[in-house]
Amino acid sequence: MIARAMIRLKRMAVLLLGLATMARAADSPAPVDFNREVRPLLSEYCFQCHGQDASQRKAGLRLDTRAGALAVREGKQAVFPGKPEASALLRRIQSNDPDQLMPPPETQRSLSAEQKAVLKRWISEGARYDQHWAFVPPRRLTPPGPARPIDAWIQSRLAREGLAPSPPATPEAWLRRVSLDLTGLPPALDELNRFSNAVQTQGEPAWASEVDRLLSSPRFGERMAIDWLDAARYADTHGFNNDSARSMWRWREWVIESFNANLPYDRFITEQLAGDLLPQATLDQRIATGFSRNHVINSEGGIIDEEYRVEYVADRVRTFSTAWLGLTLECARCHDHKFDPISQRDYYGLFAFFNNVPEHGEDGRIANAVPLLPAPTPLQRREMDRQLAEIKRLDRWIEQASRQALPLPPSPATPIQARSSAGRTERENTNVISLFLSCDNLLTQGQPFSFPSTPPELIEGVAQQAWKSQRGPLARLDKGILHFTKPATVALWIRPDENNSRDVALFSNVSYSGNPAQQGFGKGQEIRLMDGQIEVRWSDFFPAYALRVRGESAPLRAGEWRHLAVVLGGSRSAADVRIFLDGEEIPTRVLYDGLTSKDAPSTPYQIGAELTPGAPSFQGAVDELRILGRAPRSGEIRAWFAEHAEHLGTRAGTGIPSGARHITSLRRAPAKSTDAKLRANLEERDRLWENHLAYRRALPSTMVMSELPEPRPTFILRRGAYDAQGDRVEPSVPESTLAPWPAGAPKNRLGLARWLTHPEHPLTARVVVNRMWAQLFGVGLVKTLEDFGSQGEYPSHPELLDWLARDFIESGWNVKGLLRAMTLSQTYRQTSAAPPESFARDPENRLLARSPRLRLPAEVLRDQALALSGMLQESLGGESVFPYQPEELYKNIVVGADYPGTRWNLSRGRDLYRRSLYTFWKRTLPHPAMLTFDAPDREFCTVRRSRTNTPLQALILMNEPLFVEAAQRLGARIQSEGGIDLDARLRWAFRLATSRNPSVSELVELKRAMAPSLEGSENHAYASLAGILLNLDETISRE
Amino acid sequence: MNSSHCLRFESVSSRREFFGRAGLGLGAAALASLLAPSPAQATSGSRPTSHFLPRAKRVISLFQSGGPSHLELFDPKPLLKERFNEDLPDSVRRGQRITGMVAGQARFALQPSKYSFQRCGEHGTWISDLLPHTQRIADDLRVVRSMRTEAINHDPAITFFQTGSQQPGRPSFGSWIDYGLGSLNENLPAFLVLISVASDNKAGQGLLARLWGSGFLPSRHQGVQLRGAGEPVLYLENPDGVTRPHRRAMIDRVAALNRLRWRETGDPEIETRIAQYEMAYRMQASVPEVMNLDGEPESTFKLYGEDSRKPGTFARNCVLARRLAERGVRFIQLYHRDWDHHGGLTERMPVITRDVDQPSAALVSDLKQRGLLDDTLVIWGGEFGRTPYAQGEAKADHYGRDHHGKAFSLWLAGGGIQSGPAYGETDDFGFNVASDPVEIHDLQATLLHCLGLDHTRLTFRFQGRQYRLTDVHGHIVRGLLRT
Question: In angstroms, what separates the C-alpha of B148 from chain A's closest C-alpha?
């Protein structure tokens, strides 16, 4: 038995010599093909020490260029064209002396006799060097025959190998295949029936219209997204050992919708690489740039910020290069590439394009990391428009009605009582802090505040006096009194002067001095005035662990009194921050939502300046400051404003329009209004506005790319280390190796996208069509989807690859068109059944003498079970969902802190049955059914999944709750829809699962399956039958 | 070559085993030895059988996650007491980078350990009184006090320790071993993982599935987690109402239909599928059997401590580790969490050392008693050590320490390791290694050597490069090896 096995093994081993040798056996007299036969050998065995990396080069010899190989060094010549015997290279590889032998014995590598013979022939034939095939733009070639181009090339290669294509699959088998390949779902029974009929009646056009139907299904984009999510390392968590949740599902929706809309692939690239840099970039184009933000982000306390920021940039370069260039550029991060002509300088040239993001190394502990964007869905945008239209309508009505209402007499100046002290602290009830500073004098005796050495000047204020800034802060409060976890309200009147810096603190207990890397840097509470807008910052460790909310109103202007109020709900969430100007709540924008700590510092506050020594202070006046340890009462903020607004309005230059004053008065005292309807509408308007703003605050956020105003300088990093800066480099691409920079393109990511999508770029289209090919045929024409460099595999059908790439570009990068051509080919239509010799001859099916038979991807497996059982919920897009997952999965593994993403909150109802690409993806612990079926963890870009066959997979298909439930539901379906008698039901069910009728022997087996469980209930019997069907190798494979 | 190898050959020869697609790699090494010089190896890497005579057949790694303090456990430093609260001299720190946790500290005040140490055993190995049981087995151990790592944060450090790279994406140590040597048991996976947290349920830093992931190796080499609670292996148990005979009948039916399909399509992958369902069925019996401690005598629980009666504890996992070792599981990886003692080190240390001391020592004695220690390699340690200066203020009784990679300690026992006096030394501050440094890659190279594997020859080709666990580094530390 062993002997037989060994013989078989040896036979297999010979077959495994690889495709490159297959052709050679037949036509040995043909000259050696440098790219196909010689370069891989030089690359594998020589370039490590004799390649382009000068720092590693031994004996000064380089073999990656012809000049290097032919150079005479110390009287010797490595390669003497036409004279193998005079070539040192040949002597060294054939040497018996271990000190002479190349590659050196200690490298554990050796050339086979056959490989040595190839090198010898190559030298005899003149030692011709060709440029690496993948760096030459694809040529448009004429197909070798009248068949469709794909079939012509596939068949001509088969003919050369002495093989014939397989007969076509049955229409049903083809339909199941193409449905699974293009939509990730099996055909329904009526689709099978319709198609069988159509083939009968219409013939050939029926196949094309079926492909068109599938390509226009919304399910198409979902299927295509699966592979792209791997490449783009999409996940719902940040990774590393905190691995908390992030929100990037809007980007995922963009991907699905782009495929469905057949967005030309060059735009697919451009919008993801540089959507933010497009002229008048749309929200969707900005969302698309999340591609470069899908990388892992570390929030481990105490990491060195720059170290990780550099990692993120490196990850962008790696993803860019693997996904679109098909090159292992990351090898050139630490040194010149050993195999490909990519220098370390080239690497950092590309690095520079991605190095200008206003981001941090440590970020994302509890929410998205900057830069981010509110990203309403189209539905949400429509809803907001509707809300605003309704508000506008009411405003018009109120405007009309209030003009007709009785003008209100101006109130007299607010009665002045209890104003004898400038400030007072009191406890409103048991433990709510309340502080009021009237700013009417400069007495500090018995007050909870003090003045700086130059106290403020007293000027006319909104009530009586106000404080006007002199130098530094206006005043200093004794201690911090507001918490991070309790509600807070801060309100005051302010009047900025002309000469303010663009960013000053109005209220602050924060210092930005010290080491930004130190935990607790920038901790505290602040209200700032930045470019005329109000910004609220509650920080634990600035900026990553902070909430930052910016008001979006007309900018505050110099010389005008405005009433400002800031309200925090006490939840530490940015959605809980509200800003009011002149009594009215204004829209806000979340800049950061990462406040983690429960403990605010007790550092004293300053009015009008932060604590940072030397920081510019607020120039202007403040009045009537209130700090409350609670939320405002209904109407309270408006009352604070209105209290002084009416008589302020009578003074010149206050900036408060009289209409606003009037309406405010009406609102403040609706009882005064005689018009009940006006009163009701005013209240309704308030309610709508409040709801609208709450709606806006709850919009999903998504991480995006943006550029620093001043580009961050990029340096070559020695050994790739963040702190070993070498020469400064500018953004650049490997022009001489790949393609020239397009004339006039900007030196930024947008220019980079133009370079990448230039029709003469040698790699982009090849890499993309090759990946699509692999999606349909199991293996790429270049097997190494991720590496088109000299260590990658030579294409099995180079001409076909070129033709597809060229055609793809000329079709306007038409993805659906490309897939249509592939799926309608005869090559695709062949049956996957073949005699054992065929599998033995070409186990990986590189020649395509048959259709590949492949186990379905993890997502498709589960989606198919959902579809067959009738449970699939087909809604498109949306947030990630939490289907069944073992409760104990996270136990003992996830971080101890209760960050978002550390608990699995099981979905309810429909969301249990969504397609698998919507399942919450936790990078450090993805759903076991995904990992076990070979999905990557998405910590970094992956373009090729392995396809294994393990016992754990069997356990999932038999016992995972979703598959168990699917079997039960399918069992019920068989009973209700499968017909009356057992035979009919068995046939119905088998056809549903496999898209074909069972053979007689199969029917016998199915019947036997029903027999032993007759003792149990009928439901149980059908559920176990369904379980068998869902576990069949045929069901879980695409045949 | 035993009978199960023959069986395996018969079944793999017609399958795509060559491309790493089949299930648990029983006999993979033997297969590889036949294929070793063939070009298939050139494209998928070099998967040798033993390169030389292995001392160890299996590994038990008792990983202490979070960074245990060498200064409290294995590396006493009287100088720290003498110079209590003095500043760490710049000449010692030498600009070594430090974490953001302490980057803003005005000073680095030397912090002595409050715990006492004993010289233990024949060789007088220093071991802390926090580890009384470990003290008793000192003669079976080799404490290494000169470990060094580049990483200073948990994620990269633990990833480095387990995969040889600070960046994610490389196969874990256990996966490399599974890939290199395959399984010795056809009913259990070759690489199993057991995880526990501190007995008061403090968890601290999170772990990551990648630590037992297969990286770019085929995913069949990834570790399988055995759980203390719920199903011991995810989805192992049949759903309610499905009995073992039901399952047998179902698998038989699926196999029969699969065989019919195989006849139609000729796809050899179907045969592998049938075999994997059989293996799954066997695991449904073999895993509960190994997890069930009913047959263990009372003396076992006495040896490993009362905690070992409780599923999910480190002590329980140590008993299981011995049972798995007996059954030929190749790589048994334990994790115990919550060694990250930035503050409150003095509160946490007694709790966590109590969790791990007795069972760790018991495991070594138990293996020895059963004659398994000679061919079982046991590793005890974490991803880095802790700073000789306090995080925050130095205090006599209540203090904390930050991460420290420049020097730390761990111990090794069994399978090819020479027990003896502590290996390597640190300076008087416990900050830098003073003699015989052992880098992470050196440790990995040495452990592979004990398993009969040459770390420069255990390779896998990925993205055009031959990858190794030790990257392009690693020297075998001969001084640790039994001769």
Answer: 18
- Minimum distance, in Å, between the CA of residue A411 and any CA atom of chain B: 56
**Does some domain include residue A820?**
no
Residue A663: per-residue pLDDT: 58
Question: Which CATH number characterizes residue B461's domain?
Answer: 3.40.720
CB contact under 8 A, B153 and A839: no
* Integer angstrom CA distances of residue B331 from A893, B19, B52, B286: 19, 23, 19, 17
Tell whether B270 is covered by a domain.
Answer: no
Query: Amino acid letter at B81?
Result: K
Residue A138: C-alpha distances to residues A134, A799, A802, A807, B139 (Å): 8, 9, 5, 10, 68
| Partners of residue B403 in chain A, C-beta under 8 Å | 302
Mark yes or no for CB contact B18/A16 under 8 Å.
yes
pLDDT tens profile A177-206:
999 999 999 999 999 999 999 999 999 999
Mean pLDDT by 10 residues, chain A (1039 residues): 43 41 50 88 87 84 88 88 90 89 85 90 90 93 91 95 95 98 98 97 96 98 98 97 95 98 98 98 98 96 91 97 94 88 95 96 92 94 96 88 60 40 50 78 82 90 88 86 89 93 95 84 94 94 90 90 93 92 91 85 92 94 91 87 72 52 56 70 90 94 96 95 95 95 96 98 98 96 92 92 97 98 97 90 93 96 98 96 93 88 94 98 94 91 88 96 97 96 96 97 93 71 95 97
Counted domains in chain A:
3
Domain with residue A451: its CATH number is: 2.60.120.200
What is the DSSP pairing of strand A725-729 with strand A620-628? unpaired
Q: Is residue A782, in this structure, part of any structural domain at all?
A: no
Last residue of a domain, one of A109, A130, A151: A130
In a domain, A114, yes or no: yes
Domain presence at residue B13: no
- Domain range for B98: 51-248+297-480
| Contacts for B41 with CB less than 8 Å, ≥ 6 apart | B32, B35, B47
Structural domain of residue A508, as residue ranges?
Answer: 424-635
* Predicted ipTM of the assembly: 0.86
Tokens matching residue A838:
């065929």
Closest-CA distance of chain B to residue A199, Å:
24
Report the domain count for chain B: 1
Residue B266 lies in a domain: no
How far is residue A633's CA from residue A653's CA, in Å, rounded to a whole number?
30
Of the candidates A239, A311, A357, A233, the residue with the CA atom closest to the CA atom of residue A942: A233
Choose the final residue of a domain: A609, A635, A661: A635
Q: Which of A313, A1033, A1036, A1039 to mutate to test the interface with B (most CBs of B within 10 A)?
A: A1033
CB pairs under 8 A between A and B: 303
Give the contacts of A423 (CB within 8 A, at least 6 positions apart).
Answer: A435, A436, A437, A438, A447, A448, A449
Rounded to the nearest 5°, which phi and psi values hold at A1023?
-65, -40
pLDDT of residue A674: 61
- Is B283 within a domain? no
Contacts of A53 (CB under 8 A, 6+ apart): A335, A336, A337, A338
The answer to whether the CB of A387 falls within 8 A of the CB of A395 is no
Cα of A818 vs its chain's centroid, Å: 25
Q: Tell me whether residue A509 is in a domain.
A: yes
Instruction: Give whole-number Cα distances, A592 to A10, A306, A370, A535, in Å.
Output: 62, 20, 7, 11
The whole-model pTM stands at 0.86
Query: Which H or E element spans position A525?
Result: strand A524-530
Contact A881, A911 (CB under 8 A): yes
